[in-house]
Amino acid sequence: MAGRQRRRTGDIALKIRDAVGSVFSSCSFRPAEFTLPSEKGAQLSMTGEICAVGNLFEADIHAMTKAVRSLSPAWQNDSSTIRSSVEKGTLAVLCGDSDRCVAMAGAALELVRLGAVKLVIAADTPAERDNLARTFETMHGGMGNITVTLYSHENFDNWTENKASSIVYDFLSSPSPEILIIGRDSFSRKTNLLNQKNGEESLASLISHAHPVVLVSAQTVASARTIAKNAAAFSPVSVIMFTEEVKHIRGAVIYAPADTQKKHESVEIQEQLGF
C-alpha cells in the first residue's frame, strides 16, 4: 500500500511540474544584474560594487491564460477570472493528499529549467519550512547547480542582523540559480529583521529587486492567500500557491485532484434535487 501511495504522489508531482511548465513555457526568464549597497565583509566587484542577479521576466498573458484554461478543473470556467489572476501573477495548485513538498520541489526545478534564477519558497509553519528544506536536501543529487538556503534563526546561536544580511546577500549575489526557503513568521511582521531598514532599504526590499518567483506552501487556501499577500513585499514576478485544502476558488487553478469534479457534480445534483 505504501509503495502504491508513493508512486501516486510521484505521478501527481510530475503532473504538477508539467502544468507549471505548460503555463510558463510561453514566457521568458532571463538573468538581470543590479547592484547592492556595500556591507562589511562583502565581496566587491572590480568597480567596487556588489553585483546581484535577479529575474527579468516577460509574460505572454494571452498564452498563459490559454494554458491555465486548458489545465483548470472543469468547474472553473470563468475566463475573465482566470485572466485576472494571470495578470496579477497568482496561480493555485490544490494538492490534496499528495506530498506538497515533492510537488513544490518539482515545480521549482521546472522554473529553473525555464530560466528563473531566484525563487523564494514561503512556508506557513516552521515545520513545513523544515520539511521543504529536508525534501530539497534529499534531492541534492538532482539539483544540479541550484543552491538551496534555509532562512531560520533556529540554525544559529546568535541570530543577528549581520547573519540575516549575509544570507540575503549570498542569495542575491550568486550568479547561479538560488532558492531561499523561509517561514511566514520571518517576513510577515514589520518587526522582522527582513523588514527593518539598514540604511535606505530593508533586506526585503533588496530581495524585491531580484523579482523572485514565490512558491507558497500552506494547508488552507485562506492561509496561502495571506502569505501571498505578505510576499508582495518581494515584488515577485509570479506567486504559485500550493495548498493541501481542495476547494472551489475564484482564481487561476492549474491543478486539482481528479475527484474534485465528481464531488462538485454531486453537490450540484443534490442542490438541484433539493430545489
Strand % is 15-25%
How does the major sheet shape up? 7 strands, parallel
The residue-averaged pLDDT reads 86
Helix count, DSSP H or I runs of 4 or more residues = 9
Rg (C-alpha, Å): 19 Å
What distance separates the N and C termini? 42 Å
Enumerate the spans where pLDDT stays under 50 for 5 or more consecutive residues. 1-7, 262-275
Strand order of the largest sheet: 5-6-4-7-8-3-9
Please state the structural category. Answer: alpha/beta
Shape: globular
Q: Determine the fraction of residues in helical runs and give it as a percent range.
A: 40-55%
**Element-level helix/strand string:** HEEHHEHEHEHEHEHEEH
Number of strands: 9
What's this entry about, in short?
The protein is of the alpha/beta class and 275 residues long. It has helices at 2-24, 61-71, 79-88, 100-113, 126-138, 161-173, 203-208, 221-230, 259-274, and strands spanning 28-36, 50-58, 90-94, 118-123, 147-151, 178-183, 213-218, 238-243, 252-255.
